[in-house]
Design goal:
The protein is α+β, with helices and mostly antiparallel strands. It has helices spanning 2-18, 46-66, 71-83, 128-138, 146-155, 169-177, 242-247, 250-260, 265-280, and strands at 27-31, 104-110, 116-122, 143-145, 189-194, 200-206, 227-230, 234-240, 284-290, 295-299, 303-309, 315-320. The protein has an eight-stranded mixed β-sheet with strand order 4-3-2-6-5-1-11-12. The protein has a four-stranded antiparallel β-sheet with strand order 7-8-9-10, covered by helices on one side. Strand 5 and strand 6 (200-206) form a beta hairpin.
Length: 322
Amino acid sequence: MVRPALFILLVNTVISCNNPKSQPKAMVIVHGGAGYITTDLMIPGEEEGVRDAIEKSLQKSQQHLANGGTSVEAVRIAINILEDSHYFNAGKGSVFTSSGTNELDASIMNGQNGQAGAVAGLTNIKNPIDAAIAVMERSPHVFLIGKGAEEFAVTHGMDTVPQSYFYNKHRYQEHIEGLSEDRSKFGTVGAVAVDHNGNIAAGTSTGGMNNKRFGRVGDVPVIGAGTYAENGIGGLSATGHGEYFIRNVATYDIAAQVKYGNETLDEAGYNTLMKKLKSQGGNGGVIGLDSQGGVVIHFNTVAMPRGYINSKGETVVLIDVD
């Protein structure tokens, strides 16, 4: 009488192990900020530069995942490449404050253990996402700002740069002209990754709002507003008018609809971004991956550079509305 039960147990175990849904395929998705300039209005070489940066970001981070790497490191690799490109409002391409300086923010969240790290108001750190990861992994804190965050980053080996590193004539012209958010090109960058162990991570990095004053900080470094990740639910990175994302705790709002309701992550993303925030006048976008690596992309602007590698191994990069 025992043997049939044992046989059934063994068969069920084998079926479970062979079930393709039991372990998601490692993958990554990135964005380059909600934008208001379509490809037909870009200056010569701009579209190619944006696409090349996103492709490189995807391929390098995907290669890391293919070699058995972690989702947190995949997010770092992806965002570093976008931070090092002057085409996006993050790192090297950051916009200017009203006083003509640059102040950078970033955040990271590890869906495996709920740990998170964030930094705001950085002026001399080359890659803010690295500093955010250091806060998460090497401190008991979640959120550091300004000079204290910079001191912490330097103590832990982050690369520093002079303010001149962030100078870009096009960004500076936007500053001089007082260009508003609703006329900007592209902004905040972000990435979400799932590794072969099914662990999800999400990260976001930005130069903030053009001509911001009084130490303004947006949603990017606010966990649950600009960034959220939780194993079994998904990972999300947002971009857009940060005040609306903060007020609505946008990325957590999306995750909560999945966790406590009956929505898929894609449905929840649509509800929050395309219904709730849009009805309030909140412009922007969100990308994500669900617990099985399903792609989530929603934005209510005319463009949002984004990309992912599909199930066929093809690199997909899009800019305008499909």
